Each structure stands twice: as structure tokens, then as C-alpha cells.
Amino acid sequence: MREITLRQIEVIRAVLLRGTINGAAEHLGVSSPGISRLVKHTEESLGIRLFERRAGLFVPSVEAGKVFDQIREVYKGVENLQSALGSLQKGEDVRLAFASAPSVAQFIAARALRSIRKRYPDLFIDLNILKIEETLDYLLLERGEFVIMSSPVNNPGTENTELAIGRVVAILPEDHPLAEKKQISVHDLADQPLIGVEPSDPYGAKIARPFEEAGIPLRHSMRGRFAQTVVSLVRHGLGVALIDEFSVAEVYMPGLVRRPLVEDVSVTIYVVTKKGRILSNFAEFGIRQFQKELTEAHLHWS
Length: 302
What we know:
Layout: H1 6-18, H2 21-28, H3 32-46, E1 51-54, E2 57-60, H4 65-90, E3 95-100, H5 102-105, H6 108-119, E4 124-129, H7 132-140, E5 147-149, E6 158-173, E7 194-196, H8 202-213, E8 220-223, H9 227-235, E9 241-244, E10 256-260, E11 266-274, H10 281-295
Parallel strand pairs: 3-4, 3-5, 7-8
Antiparallel strand pairs: 1-2, 5-11, 6-9, 6-10, 6-11
Helix pairs in contact: 1-2, 2-3, 6-10
């Protein structure tokens, strides 16, 4: 006995639903003669009468009742599959976990997440804020799929991919005398109360470099562990600071003035992943959104 094909099942179901050849053809968007020939061919090849013809209508034959029961089950499975695919496309019942350095998380992450949410409206998102020394455990223990960091993680078990390069800028209280300048040099900041990050920290070392290269002793009046802390301290008039442009990539920052730095200093942002781990579509899409927002960060304040 010949096996029945998926196309034959589709046509039989269409005739079952609509009751006529013309109706089935309309349902499937094909010609009526093609449907008629396929129904006849199916009955002949299977040696089974599937339909009885009554006053122009195609009525399921009694002997084929079990066949139609199975066809209904097949299509129920197809509908369940379509439902599952639809849920997956929207991000239903799935999770995206990743982490970010505080500097990127403050403004860039929110804009990237807005795009991710638009693409996957039902996706559960777990965003963690990490220090660089916490990154390795987070990735190797697979607590999340990727980490956005301002320094590479040098370990054989991880891979670092450059996403964007941003400038280091000067930030000052809006009523500061230097706020009138279009550009700020580290020489302008030499006698100012300087707020910074510990130079032994990879991020702090980058921010300290222009002072060292200019031969200016680095004297912090106070330090903050994270970029958000530094921004807050400057906003409240407690000093001035150098910081990466991603940490201040917002249109409105009341109480704060941002100025380009004369000295050419940059910060590179990396996405760090566990070596060999295959990322989900959600993670790959998320990384692309982070790269887009990082690349366009300067548009939000320049």
C-alpha cells in the first residue's frame, strides 16, 4: 500500500472542512480541477473511499472515520507546533541572562534593552551588573550568555570581541569656571579637586593615563568604585573627573557639563563570552543592539 503524503493530507482536510471541491480549492488557493484529481488519485492509490458524494457535497465515508480522526490529530499537532514557534519568536517562556559593566549599564543598556523588548515582547531578561573580577565566574558557570565590559577578560576559557571604541571626556559641575571652555585638557584639571577610580583598576588605569603622559601627578580628592558614583559626585559639585563617553551618553544630565578632552584617550568596549559556547538567537540579537547603541552613544550628548 502506498503511503499518504503531507500534501494529500492537506487536501483531504481542506475538503473535509469546506465540503466541496471548490471550497477546498479556495481554502488552499489552488485550482478546483487539481483538487479533484488529487482526491481521486488518493482514493485510488490507497484503495479507500474517503468521501461520499451527496448533492454536490463531499461527506466523509463511514469506513474512513478513523482516517479522519488521525488527520485531525495531525493538524492539532501542527497547530501546537505553530503555537510553540510563535511563542519562541516572541520570547515566551524563554530567558536571556547577561551582564554589563556599570558604565555601559547606566544608559546604553536601557536603549539596547528597548530594542530587544520590541523584537521579543515576552522574553524574560535578566541583566546583572558586574565588576570585572566577577566576570569569569559568571561566564564559566554559565549564569549568563555574555558580558559587556570595558576591558578584556584574559583567560583561556573566554573570548573577547571588540564592540566599540569611545572617547574619554571631562565632566564638570555646570557652574564650574572651566565649563565655558569648548575643550578641556588634563592641564586645566591639574589644580582641580579630581574625582576618579583607583588606578590599579583596569578602568581607573585608562582614565589615569593622560595625566601620567602629561607628567601631572595624579591626586584624587575622592574616589568612587563605579562610573555612576563618579558622575553623581561631580553633579553635586564635589569635583571634576574624566570618564568614558558611554557613562554620560544621555541627552539631559542636569547639573553636569560634558566637554571633549584635548588629549586623545579612548576606552574599548568588549563582549566577553565563554569559549565554545553557542549563543542563543536572543543573545546574538542583544549583542548587535549593544554594538549599535555604543556606536551611536556620542549622538546623545555631542
